Amino acid sequence: MVREFSAPLDDVRQAVTSVQQDHTIHGTKMFDKDSALAGADATDSTPLFEPWRGPGEVFYKTRANVIAPRHFLDSADNGTVAVRYVITSVTPDRARVRVDAVYVESSHRIAHPSDGTVEKEELKEIKDTLESMQEAAAQAADSRRRQQSAELVRQSYIRQHEDESTRLNTAQTAEKDLQRQIATLRLDLERRVKDPGADLKAAPFRSAASLKTLSAHTELIVLIVTPHWLGVETPEGQRGWLGVEQLEPLP
Fold this sequence. Notes:
Elements (H helix, E strand, L loop, with lengths): L1 E4 L3 H12 L3 E2 L11 E2 L2 E3 L13 E11 L10 E14 L2 E12 L5 E3 L3 H47 L4 H22 E4 L4 E4 L8 E5 L4 E7 L3 E5 L5 E5 L3 E3 L2
Helix pairs in contact: 1-2, 2-3
C-alpha cells in the first residue's frame, strides 16, 4: 500500500521512524480485548521479506511469537509479523511511503499476507504523526515570530531613549514595563520536571520513542505548547516532548 505526503523527505522520514519505533504493529492483534499488537521492535532488516532492491530508504518492524494474528489471510500457528516501510522522494516537498506487512509461521514457514488493514493503519499512524509534527513546527514558528516582534519593540524603545532626550522619562518607563513583561514571559517559558522524573519523548505520543530520562527538578525551556504536550529544550540543548502533567512551574 502506497501513499504520498505533502512534506519534505526529512519530515516524512522522521514520522516513519517514530512509528517504526513505537513498539506497536497497528491494524492487527491476537486477542479481541487488545487494540493493537504490542511488543514490536524496530530492526534494520528481516529475512521475512526479500531484500529490497528498488529506490528509497527501507525500515522494518517485527513482532515474534504471535499466534494467529488478525487480518492476515488464513493465519494460524505461532509466527512472526513483519512490517516494511519504503520511503522515496517525489519532489522537494513531497515524499512517497510504501508499507508492506506479512505474517510467517515459525514451524512451516508459510507466509500469510495482510488483507490491507495493517498497511492502512500503519500509514494512518504515519499521517497522524506527520500532522502533529507539522502543527508543532507551525506553533514553534509562531512562537519565534512573537519573540522577534517583542525584540523589535524593545529595540524601538531603546532607539527612542537614545534619540529623543525630551522623551527620556517616557522611554525609561516604557523600557521598565517591557523588562517586566520579558521577565513574566521568561517565567511562563520555564518549567521543571516533577518527581520522580520523566522520559523525554521524540514525539507528542505516549508510545513515541524515549530520547532520555530526565531527573526530577531538571529545568527546561518550553518551546511549543499544546493542550496535552509541551515541546521542551533541556539545559544541554536536546529537544523533545513531555506531558503537561509531568512538569511544574519553577519555585
